[in-house]
Amino acid sequence: MAAAIQADMNNGFARLERLIAQNHRDTTAKYDNLNKKVDKLDKKVDKLDTKVENLSTQVEKLFVIAGKHQTSIDELNAKQDKLFVVMDAQQTSVNKVVADMAEVKKEQSSLSERLTHLLAEITKLAADTAKGLEIWAEKTQENVTNRILEVRDTRYDALMKELDKIKAKSQPVGPYNRGIGSAQSPPGTPGARPSLYPAPRT
């Protein structure tokens, strides 16, 4: 009985040893497999670290490039601001030129009206003087004729001086008056005035 129990115990211990040995082998194999997997993962991690380092280097380069681009953008913005200032100044100048042109045209229009009125007065004076001279000449009143001539010359000289002033003002004085014509001088000796009246009868 005792021998049978001892045999069972020995068998049990032997089986337990086999189980322990088998478990050790299985565990060792599992650890080996895990170690291999860990090695593979370490290699992958190393590759990832390398990629991360490369990416970090590229990111730094991109930051450098971005900084240069930002500097260029800032310079362009500064130039643009300067251009806007210049454009504003030019627009102000253009507005002033337009206002000056309008003022000059207004003054030219006024001078033209005065010139037309003055020419009408000169024509009327010439007609009146010619008619008066003809009447008084027929009556052979030389003193009256001379008086008429004196009055005529006085009024004629005053009117011609006013006409000369208007002509001088209506001459082009700058780029704003381009295209506005001026009165032409009468043919003959420079500065000579045309004769609008007949010569006095003697």
The counted number of beta strands is 0
Radius of gyration: 59 Å
Q: What's the tally of helices?
A: 2
Structural class from helices and strands? mainly alpha
What does the main sheet amount to? none
* Helix and strand element order: HH
* Mean pLDDT metric: 78
Apparent shape: rod-shaped
Give the CA-CA distance, first to last residue. Answer: 194 Å
User: How much of the sequence is in beta strands?
Assistant: under 5%
Low-confidence stretches: 176-198
Helical residue percent? Answer: over 70%
Keywords: Coiled coil
Protein name: Autophagy-related protein 16 domain-containing protein
Organism: Postia placenta MAD-698-R-SB12
Coiled coil: 24-58
What's a quick, concise take on this entry?
With 202 residues, the protein is mostly helical. Helix content is 82%, strand content 0%. The protein has a domain at 108-172.
Describe this structure in words.
Residues 24-58 form a coiled coil. Residues 170-202 are annotated as: Disordered. This is Autophagy-related protein 16 domain-containing protein. Keywords: Coiled coil. 82% of the residues lie in helices and 0% in strands. It has 202 residues and is mainly α. Helix 1 (2-138) runs antiparallel to helix 2. The longest helix has 137 residues, at 2-138. Mean pLDDT is 78; it is low at 176-198.
